[in-house]
Design a protein that fits this description.
By secondary structure, the protein is of the alpha/beta class. Helix content is about 40%, strand content about 20%. The protein is built from 15 helices and 15 strands. The strands form two sheets. A nine-stranded mixed sheet has the order 14-13-12-11-7-10-9-8-15.
Amino acid sequence: MSHNQKRRDFLRTAAATGTGLLFIPSRSVFGSTANSAINVGVIGCGGRGNYIGEWFIKGTESRVSALADVFDDRLESTRTHFNKLQDERSRAQIAPENIFRGGHSFEKVVASKDVDAVIVTSPPYFHPEHLEAAVDAGKHVYLEKPVGTDVAGCKRVMKAGEKAKGKVAIHVGFQKRYDVGYKGAIARIHAGEIGPVSLGQTFYYTNDLDRQNKPGMSPLEARLRNWVFDQALSGDILVEQNIHIIDVVNWALKSHPIKAVGTCGRTIRKSVEGIPEATLTHDFFILTFVYPGDVHISFNSNQFRNRAYRVQGERFFGTLGVSETMQSGPATIILNKEGQKEDAGPVNLDKAVGDKITAFIDGIKSGNLDNQAEQGAESTLSAILGRMAATSGKEATWDKMIKTNDKWDLKMNLDSLGTVTTASR
């Protein structure tokens, strides 16, 4: 049996062990949306929710019809932003009764008859719960990466994906897979132009993130506002941000890593307001992933206070040449026999986001319901594998990771914010 067949068997088995869902057919599939604008609800009204929602409005005929968040200021600013964009395009504004605040606001969005599809841009820890609720209600889902922050959450996502197949669309926010340059380079790798890949070098160096807490906030609110610095809520920088690189490696090698070793630390990031020290994210990772065929992939990342230097990319070394994909572009191929770079296509990740959202909407209208839950879970689990290796200082293997059914405990008293289970991304 091939490794890829074993991998598919594992994913089906793992998904089958997840929480069962009551499925209600989507009116979006069987109703009128094939010939009309698609109404979209946004769960998590932070920066990413506004960015993705704006692309839906500007790039398609969609309309944002409902919002959910735990913070009034996020709801108000997002409502104002989207209503202005929709007014400019002669689309109806968001009705006041479709603005939902609180810990169960996501349930109200997915239950709304004014919503055909949802954008999930809440903190990743809550993604499995929000995806399950949307699928259960028969809504199409644009789910931001990562799909979860622990093994148990990824299994829930795979289970929801199985329930959704052929009924509702699920997209996961890996925009590189829709980029012209990346697609061109990966297609040439898959065509064998650089020969079998034997080694990879990958990296994600970027700046530190802004703090969102303000004086006078409760510890709970500060933690939720600063969720990107919380391992349980975000998955750590490797899972929440660096996963884009790991997803490209999985894509290029048509597999997931079977083991990993590495280290991580906090060189500069010593504390963040509201985040317990025990769950504070790291600011660098240094890892080696091993893929089937003994293919070794190095990976380094940081989130340092250096806004002048941001470099992210991937290099794959084969027996016949090298591919190089950088987020600053372009994607290139260097063949040994030619000895010079060949352009594989331009890289424009903003455009790739728009192309991905267009594909999501077009698929819903045509009934070609793409389901990326399995792929999203596999890439998230690959990043979690690296995190386990780095934080333990020991080799971590895929098989042992899956058997752990690892699950984060938030250790949060949510009562003061109305049993909060969502916050802004």
